[in-house]
């Protein structure tokens, strides 16, 4: 009986076409329905947003192109996440689940439709994570430290709060034994390069609001208010957070099954998910953006759990998660209408 059960669990792959394609099509339906009801459109800039993002909001074309841009950025971020997982072997088995989970998480939350400042920032964040991971045990990785900080600096031009991930990267460099005075200075220089050019632009334009407005917003914290919160708006967030916790505990309890290198990479992603969820509660005004960045580590951690865990309850939990998130989206859309 045990042999028959093992054969049942091993031959099934959640990223196989018979599962991957229907879930992907369901996510497409979510985007189409959101488009029909103009969820999140038009995209407005805010007073506290960076001037570059406000300029992009004003220059956005019609509704169709805005949604297409949002879908392309979502798919691009999912592809970068998949490639990073594949090249760095974050999950010891070949799988497309990080790609699938990222698209599922983005497509089932109406707060992400159709376009956010973090839609581009996620690109920079994933590429910065790749640069950080490839500097593993390399104390001379000054170029990679510079590149990672440069990418974070570029992303912060659209979303200034991305700079809060820089201390997390320093912690990662320390754990990966690549943090030295030179690599630390290289990371500072990477961010300084971006804002040195921005300063030059401000001097030329004689307008320093690109500096004053974003950095004033960066240090203006406001705890997430609990009054007026609708349970249905939180239930999908709670589900993703719960799955992330379960996946993290599974990694901690079975840490000997992965290589030391993979364990340290996964430990950084666990820390990143805790960091992003914590900032979600500290910045009410941009909580959705922090939630979108939390989808990056959560996608890999949850994909790791569903890939390496061979139990019947996990089999059904995967489909229950997909149906639950999609159903929650339509319930929220119903309440929105």
Automatic annotation (TrEMBL):
Keywords: Membrane, Transmembrane, Transmembrane helix. The chain crosses the membrane at residues 20-45, 65-91, 112-133, 145-171, 183-204, 224-253, 265-283, 313-334. It comes from the Bacteria. This is Transmembrane protein. It comes from Parabacteroides acidifaciens. The lineage of its organism: Bacteria, Pseudomonadati, Bacteroidota, Bacteroidia, Bacteroidales.
């Amino acid at each position: 009986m045990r042999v028959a059960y093992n054969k049942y669990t091993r031959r099934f792959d959640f990223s196989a076409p018979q599962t991957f394609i229907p879930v992907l099509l369901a996510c497409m339906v979510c985007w189409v329905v959101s488009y029909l009801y103009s969820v999140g459109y038009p995209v407005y800039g805010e007073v506290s947003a960076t001037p570059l993002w406000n300029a992009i909001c004003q220059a956005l074309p019609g509704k169709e192109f805005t949604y297409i841009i949002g879908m392309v950025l979502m798919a691009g971020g999912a592809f970068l996440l998949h490639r990073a997982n594949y090249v760095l072997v974050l999950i010891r088995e070949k799988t497309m689940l990080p790609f699938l989970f990222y698209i599922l998480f983005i497509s089932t939350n109406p707060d992400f439709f159709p376009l956010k400042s973090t839609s581009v920032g996620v690109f920079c964040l994933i590429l910065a994570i790749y640069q950080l991971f490839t500097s593993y045990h390399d104390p001379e990785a000054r170029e990679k430290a510079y590149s990672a900080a440069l990418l974070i600096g570029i992303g912060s031009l659209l979303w200034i709060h991305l700079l809060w991930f820089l201390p997390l990267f320093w912690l990662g460099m320390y754990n990966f034994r690549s943090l030295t005075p030179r690599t630390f200075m290289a990371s500072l220089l990477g961010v300084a390069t971006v804002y040195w050019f921005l300063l030059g632009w401000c001097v030329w334009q004689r307008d320093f609001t690109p500096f004053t407005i974003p950095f004033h917003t960066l240090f203006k914290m406001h705890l997430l208010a609990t009054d007026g919160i609708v349970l249905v708006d939180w239930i999908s967030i709670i589900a993703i957070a719960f799955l992330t916790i379960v996946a993290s505990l599974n990694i901690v309890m079975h840490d000997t099954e992965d290589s030391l290198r993979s364990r340290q990479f996964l430990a950084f992603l666990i820390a990143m998910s805790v960091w992003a969820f914590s900032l979600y509660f500290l910045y009410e005004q941009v909580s959705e953006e922090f939630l979108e960045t939390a989808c990056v580590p959560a996608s890999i951690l949850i994909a790791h759990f569903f890939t390496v865990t061979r139990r019947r309850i996990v089999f059904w939990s995967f489909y229950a998660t997909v149906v639950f998130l999609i159903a929650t989206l339509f319930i929220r859309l119903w309440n929105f209408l």
